[in-house]
Amino acid sequence: MSKREAFIEKLREIAVSTPTEIIEVPDKVEGFGTVVYESQTCSACKKCMDVCEVDALDIQLTLNLPEYLAATIPEDGFRSKNREALVFLLQHLKQNGEVQAISVPTGLPGYGSISWVQDKCIACNKCVEICPENCLTLEKQYDLQAVIGEVVSPPVVEVKEWEPFIICFVCWECSHAAADLAGLMHLHYPANIRTIRVPCSGAVEPIHIMTAMQNGADGVLVTGCLFDECHYGGDDELAGNFMQYDFVQFWKQVFEGIGLGGRLHIDFASAAMGIKFTEIVTEFVQQIEELGPSPLRGKLEVEE
User: Fold this and answer.
1) Of the four, 72, 213, 243, 291, which is 20 to 30 A from 45 by CA?
2) Closest by alpha carbon to 178, among 162, 202, 201, 155?
3) Predicted pLDDT of residue 303
4) This prediction's pTM
């Protein structure tokens, strides 16, 4: 199983409700998106398939007639004049009927339809860049329902004397030191968190967050250095904490879509901010207390 397949499988396992909306992907978040295909301009050259390293593209030996008949030819025409002539001819010869697609004889070059598999796609944009006919585009949107499918809501599990259990990822340089300082200052914050040290907040990957939730956490908190003070990038927009902030904003939408909304948060504190770290933890624990136990508890209990 590839890393991508394991990622998608884990996402399906923690989903407790069926997503209904397509979510927007922040510009700096890589690996997620939707490839949009316009068959009318495609010459079936297969160059996009050749550069796709994850086999997310394939060619079907069919032509979808409704797409050709509904196409609008731009004022300056298509790049491929042969394709423009084909669309014009099909529209000119249009007759009433229920034909949705026609087969393309095997070995006939220049005709066919590209199919895209979102599960495999890593949104690398290589297919878009190499397409000579501009028939592929990458949109910063992610259709969770297409990836996850229908989800059966988990049963409600009665939890007696429940207290939130929260995994807190702390960066080695700053937020971990802030947690230590809070202890030295005898500041009191809820003891519901278990800290996991990471080199940088930017090192936290989706699989880490999903695994924490799957293993019983009611919420996941990511903490790092202050903006402009990341030890892995400073004030560069590609610094670890900048990148992780955008990623978590995206992932919070994912959690909302699959029924785990409000259970992921990111915040920042310098090594000298013991009080700030205490406030971050306290506020997040209160938020989880209001939400109640993770609905994953019921799902996992049934699966086990």
Assistant:
1) 72
2) 201
3) 52
4) 0.83
